[in-house]
Design a protein that fits this description.
It is built from 10 helices and 11 strands. With about 375 residues, it is an alpha+beta fold. Helix 3 packs across helix 4 and helix 6 packs across helix 7. The longest helix has 21 residues.
Length: about 375
């Protein structure tokens, strides 16, 4: 459903999800700096992370979550997402927050925003399974790397047209459990309508697939690891290498709050203000603490809260946090005119920073400061 925000409205939608990971300290474990350097789509398991590619969705509502990543593999330990939605006509980084439903709209789901470039890593993760890219992994890499690391639009437009929106969104449903749709009349990958809780659920599925899962061995033997999806790992590595000029300072905030190295924070932002909008959209997703040597751990004590790092019999357990902040903020007519010109020159990022940078950082800090219980 098409979303029409009233002039003056401001929307911020934010969510966090946490996953418990076991850190494998064995020699030869993948280092987050080295990671997977030559992931080939043809070499990966068609069911990464032991996820059921057919969750059995019958609900046709856009954005319906078929099954959380925690239910896709029995070893997954994913916490329930915590979600915060705010709307106010004069929202700022320190502005007053009121319930989202106070925002009036003429039509559309009030909790959905156009995604901009936020889903590019997920789209290139699932498109790697398409026969054409499995047969030509070099082409996949040539398209995926600039799309994820530099937010290049041309490669994403290419797969969107070649594979088709329907096929890509159905693949996302299969591998993440989230059903998304493009707004009616929308032809762009950037017009998929999303909510923050759906975005963190989908990126949690990417992490679960990349991490693999522990596999029980014989009695008394150490827990072995089921290898993760190499393409998912490569996508996360590229997200860790996104430039600071495209992170709005959110990566540094995530690293500070979670006490993890900046280099271990994967990030993807999306930004745009189209000609038919009275708002400027700026979004950010972060994955803090990802390590290529991590595996998803099974639950041991569902009621026990856990800290960022705990010692376990098999090694070290770490909490990985995924956040998403979506914003749609008012933009004046003069600013819209200036934005169109800046976008043509590729100089639009400072405008997004001025409007939304403080909000993205503030909401990310708030989400990561909250402690979540283990399932």
């Amino acid at each position: 459903m098409r979303q029409r925000l009233r002039a003056g409205d401001a929307v911020v939608d934010a969510a966090v999800r946490r996953i418990a990971l076991a850190i494998d300290a064995e020699p030869g474990a993948i280092n987050p700096e080295s990671g997977v350097t030559d992931a080939e789509p043809g070499a990966m398991d068609p069911e990464p992370g032991a996820m059921d590619p057919e969750p059995g969705v019958t609900d046709a509502q856009p954005g319906a979550v078929d099954a959380g990543p925690g239910s896709m593999t029995p070893e997954a330990r994913v916490l329930d997402p915590e979600r915060e939605v705010r709307s106010d006509s004069n929202l700022s980084g320190r502005g007053k927050a009121v319930p989202l439903d106070s925002t009036q709209r003429t039509s559309g789901d009030p909790q959905r925003l156009r995604c901009a470039s936020l889903l590019k890593p997920l789209l290139f993760w699932v498109v790697a399974r398409e026969p054409g890219f499995q047969a030509n992994p070099r082409r996949w890499r040539e398209l995926a790397e600039p799309a994820v690391m530099r937010s290049a639009n041309e490669p994403t437009v290419e797969i969107w047209r070649e594979v088709g929106a329907g096929t890509l969104l159905e693949s996302l449903r299969k591998y993440t459990g989230v059903r998304w749709t493009v707004e009616p009349g929308g032809r762009s990958f950037g017009r998929v309508l999303v909510r923050a809780d759906e975005v963190v659920a989908a990126y949690a599925a990417l992490v679960v697939a990349a991490a693999g899962s522990p596999v029980a061995g014989q009695a008394g033997a150490s827990v072995a690891r089921q290898a993760g999806d190499p393409v998912a790992r490569q996508v996360l590595l590229w997200m860790q290498r996104v430039g600071d000029d495209q992170s709005f300072g959110v990566r540094s905030v995530a690293a500070q709050v979670t006490a993890t190295p900046v280099s271990s924070v994967a990030i993807k932002c999306g930004w745009f203000s189209d000609a038919d909008e009275l708002h400027i959209r700026t979004h950010a997703v972060t994955i803090s603490g990802w390590s290529g040597s991590a595996t998803v751990t099974p639950p041991r004590d569902p009621g026990r809260p856990f800290a960022r790092t705990d010692a376990t019999a098999e090694g070290t357990e770490r909490t990985l946090a995924i956040t998403c902040v979506l914003t749609a903020l008012p933009i004046s007519d003069p600013d819209r005119t200036a934005y169109a010109a800046a976008d043509e020159r590729g100089e639009e990022l400072p405008i997004h920073e001025r409007h939304a940078g403080a909000i993205l950082r503030d909401r990310t800090r708030t989400l990561l400061s909250q402690k979540g219980p283990a399932e």
